[in-house]
Records
---
Amino acid sequence: MSTMTYNGIQQPFVTVLEKKRPYWTPLKRNIRMSRSGRPRLISTEKELLVQPVTLLIEGNSKSDLLNKAEEVASWLVTKEAKRLTFSDQPNRHYLAVIDGEVDVNEIVSFSRITVQFICLEKLGEEHTLSLTSTSKKFVIAGQESTPWKSYTKFATPQSSFTLESSVGKVLLEYKFIAGDVLEIDYEKRDVKLNGKDLSISVLLETVWFELPVGEISLKSSVPTELTYDERYY
């Protein structure tokens, strides 16, 4: 038995009894026959990873159990996918949301329920890279390329900002002043200055890029912190 944390919360009255944890995300191979009559692999698509999890909810009485069942519903039913972590593998996380019906077996002051988690991503550790104007090599961990976020605080006025890698670049043209805070979210293509949208400053020459697994060169015109999560199959 183990415990689980979902959306940053671990319920003390909930125990994980059983889970069917696939070793990797299911893959769908698209194969076509070539003119010579031989099969060719055209592309590979990741399908959704589904994890059935059986939970034990313990109460002090029937009414207490029903109250705790409502707490579990408030905890697990979310509008967006949240981070899911199991105590027996604390260095791996799933971006997950529950789906479908709940199978309930209720006995006096405790109940056994099975829920289905739809896992959109499997994540590892978070890393923060410190970038400067001098190109530096970093090794991106994990099994799949990953999105990133950056944080930059300007110490002096600047008329532009660049964040470059060996596979792409982000170019901004704007009159930054000392104290300005620039935040970029690659996945959402969000560019914010002091919390306000600044996407209009993104130049056409920008080539958005994910961080590929392995070695990559990175630099920025102003000292910048870039963070990413390891991604796994």
---
Amino acid sequence: MLQKTKQLITPALSILLAFLASAAIISLTGRDPLMIFQKMSMAIFGSQYGLGQVIFRLGTLTLVGLAVAVPYRLRLFNIGGEGQLQMGAFAAAMAGSFIPEFYPGPAASFLCILAAMAAGGCWALFAGALKIRFGINEVISTIMLNFIAQGITGYLLTYHFALPSTVHTPSVVPGAFIPPLESFSGLFAGSPANASIF
């Protein structure tokens, strides 16, 4: 019982401390923290679009959080979630642009998800290999790999995959997109919230 209570209190205290720290920083800038928090609440809960934006980001952050939480159970500190996300997103986008348009939607989405998982997993594999072969601490290697992933994806998107004379990359086939929540629930109109939250 005490353990369960502690599990509830710890996140609640973390949230409270985050709000207090935010309020202190906002006050230092000469603004009213309550007014800022009110505007934040209105931006989130004041429209379906705002709530949809939160749900969209929640799905992404949850997946990245799992990339940290699972290794942590093995006493490994994976700080490379950002880089793994970038490599996975890049692989998914490239796969989506190469898939023929006649592929059925679920198959196209599945292939993009597989590409993302493979790319993100392979990027994490570098840190594991460095730890096993050279004993390099995974905190250091995964942080450094974040910046390397950012540089690689930025370079490839700018110089190899951008359409000539534009800053755009090839379009992803429509069937490869994860269905938006709006398409089957009618909610969160115009927002990028999609079925990945499930």
